[in-house]
Write a structure and sequence with these properties.
The chain is α/β, with parallel strands linked by helices. It has two domains: about 80 residues, no CATH class; about 160 residues, 2-Layer Sandwich (Nucleotidyltransferase, domain 5), CATH 3.30.420.10. A five-stranded mixed beta sheet has the order 3-2-1-4-5. β2 and β3 form a beta hairpin. α5 packs across α6 and α7 runs parallel beside α9. The longest helix has 17 residues. The chain starts with a helix and ends with a helix.
């Protein structure tokens, strides 16, 4: 197997060859190192294992933080970066998408959030958005609400249709779970968020709503980035319409748990959202 990869790498990228052969990168490099009578050092092996465990989604800074958390190993980030480059363990790049806004507006409110994504405590600022999931037998959508204090996903709903009831279910779930007294809720200008039903319900619950400028996805960048991660990490090996809708839902549920409970973030001192949120409890 090693000889085959070595022969083909003159024509194809090693990562493409390993993908076709269904061999994890870390496994191949362990084999190759053993074949050439030398293996990775303890530090290298730990980095290889961490990258494999996190499915190559973390960059060298996060891997450096995990080395400290898991093994109490303090190492320069450039050393981690060089080792990751040596074994071709670089972080996978997320595919960016263009934001499309559909539907007519009913109630437009001011952009109160104004890209100030920092919150001093839980239930101070929430952001919400919808993204599409084109991986099942027909299109599904997920509506998500995130708390900007620790980027925790407070509530989410999956539906085959985008309508006002869809996003209202998400908001009702978030309110039932957190019972906020005063909160700022930011969204884009999608028709479901500008609808009278949505805006009036938020007002009844004492929620102040805020909206991005029309067509400006950067005004809601944090949750846009999360939805990009959901698809690039949760569905990175899936093609469009390649699995059943029940499997799509399972993958979303699994990723939401992973994201809230295990996925570390630099802005959270390299903790997962729920672990960071416990500090405010």
């Amino acid at each position: 197997m090693i000889e085959l990869v070595e022969a083909l790498k003159k024509t194809y990228k090693i990562t493409d060859i390993l993908q076709v052969l269904e061999i994890p990168k870390s496994t191949f490099y362990r084999w190759r190192n053993k074949y050439t009578d030398w293996g990775p050092s303890q530090l290298e092996q730990r980095i290889i294992n961490l990258c494999e465990e996190t499915k190559y989604h973390y960059g060298h800074r996060k891997v450096k933080a995990l080395l400290k958390q898991r093994f109490d190993v303090q190492v320069n980030r450039k050393t981690v970066q060089m080792i990751m480059q040596k074994f071709h363990l670089q972080c996978q790049i997320k595919v960016k998408r263009q934001k499309h806004i559909n539907g007519e507006s009913n109630i437009i409110v001011t952009n109160i959030l104004n890209r100030n994504f920092k919150a001093n405590g839980p239930n101070e600022k929430w952001v919400t958005d919808i993204t599409y999931l084109p991986y099942g037998s027909f299109m599904l959508y997920v509506s998500t609400i995130m708390d900007l204090y620790n980027n925790e996903i407070v509530a989410y709903t999956i539906s085959p249709v985008q309508n006002t009831e869809f996003v209202l279910r998400t908001l009702k779930e978030a309110i039932e779970k957190r019972r906020p007294e005063k909160i700022l809720l930011h969204s884009d200008q999608g028709s479901v968020y500008t609808s009278y039903a949505y805006q009036h319900f938020a007002k009844e619950k004492g929620i102040t709503t805020s909206m991005s400028r029309k067509g400006n996805c950067h005004d809601n960048a944090v949750i846009e980035s999360f939805h990009s991660s959901l698809k690039s990490e949760g569905f990175k090996d899936q093609r469009r319409s390649s699995i059943t809708n029940s499997k799509v839902i399972d993958k979303v549920n699994q990723y939401m748990c992973y994201y809230n409970e295990k996925r570390i973030q630099a802005k959270l001192n390299y903790l997962a959202p729920i672990n960071y949120g416990r500090q405010a409890a």
